[in-house]
Write a structure and sequence with these properties.
alpha+beta; D-amino Acid Aminotransferase, Chain A, domain 1; OB fold (Dihydrolipoamide Acetyltransferase, E2P); 2 domains; 7-stranded antiparallel sheet; 6-stranded mixed sheet; 5 helices; 20 strands; 40% strand; elongated
């Protein structure tokens, strides 16, 4: 079951949870036999053996739904760690629903009943956690999510059945989007057409670091402006300390233009996740575009 990206008109009957930033996973438990599966049905036992072992130790007959999340050195959830290697040492399975318990199919039952069973069953352990319910209104939860650096909030109706594979308005998602101003360090072209702009941030010490490409959100007039700017700003070599692999489709700029983009996360490796162009910032100077304090 998947949430829809729709605002709540009224909050009556809805509860709010953290939108975890990880791998969605179903856990099929038959005593000591465990099968961890991704949303696409791929087996995850070998990728997350610690989780499979702890689930096997429960000796349950159940089907759980939850999120596999990686935890960084400071205890923060870090999605980039899940992608960085084939195995991850510090990982948690955050459970938020119960589809089957013993011989009972629970999907048709209201969310509140399924949650009550989970709360009786669950003893929090190091790697197995029950997703907490957040107090307060949706707006208060969203403000907390911004403060804590969470991906967003999921709102679920207490009467909701579990609909496998269905995206339903019983569940709503509210993503937190951040904005950042970066230096336009170049453009990527296909023929004469501008496909995306390359963005950079200034590191401590003053050097420019490439943080990613932004194509989403660029309007035709923005692409035309970048094409015109290339005749004035073009340089032979990239001005960043970590240029991407070059395939002949890049045009590099001297640092002059600033762009504001919306994004989901700036990873610890200084890469923007899901950036969307908003506007050019002609009121800002490139030296104001610092990477300091932006990660997470």
């Amino acid at each position: 079951m998947l949430p829809v990206n729709q605002p709540l008109q009224a909050e009556g009957g809805y509860v709010h949870e953290i939108k975890w930033d990880g791998f969605r996973a179903l856990a099929y438990l038959n005593g000591a036999e465990v099968y961890l599966a991704s949303r696409n049905g791929h087996r995850l036992n070998e990728r997350f053996p610690q989780i499979a072992a702890e689930l096997a130790a429960r000796n349950w007959r159940a089907v759980l739904d939850g999120e596999l999340v990686a935890v960084g050195d400071r205890g923060e959830v870090d999605f980039s760690l899940l992608r960085s290697s084939s195995t991850v040492k510090e990982v948690r399975y955050v459970v938020f629903d119960l589809l089957v318990w013993e011989d009972s199919m629970l999907c048709p039952r209201p969310w509140r009943e399924r949650r009550d069973i989970l709360e009786v069953l669950f003893v929090q352990e190091r790697r197995l956690l029950l997703s907490p319910l957040l107090p307060g209104t949706l707006q208060e939860c969203l403000e907390l999510a911004k403060e804590r650096g969470w991906e967003g909030i999921i709102s679920k109706h207490e009467a909701s059945p579990y609909l496998p594979g269905v995206r339903s308005s019983w569940w709503r998602k509210h993503k937190i989007r951040r904005t950042i101003d970066g230096v336009v360090v170049g453009i990527r072209c296909l023929g004469q057409a501008v496909r995306s702009l390359a963005l950079g941030l200034i590191l401590p010490g003053g050097k420019l670091c490439y943080v990613g490409n932004v194509g989403s959100g660029l309007r035709e007039r923005d692409r035309e402006f970048l094409q015109e700017a290339s005749s004035l700003l073009r340089v032979e070599h990239p001005g960043v300390v970590n240029p991407p692999s070059q395939d002949g489709n890049w045009v590099w700029f001297r640092p002059h233009l600033v762009a504001e983009v919306e994004y989901l996360e700036l990873t610890p490796q200084l890469r923007l996740r899901h950036p969307v162009f908003l506007r050019f910032r002609f009121d800002k100077r490139p030296e104001e575009c610092s990477a300091a304090g932006e990660r997470g």
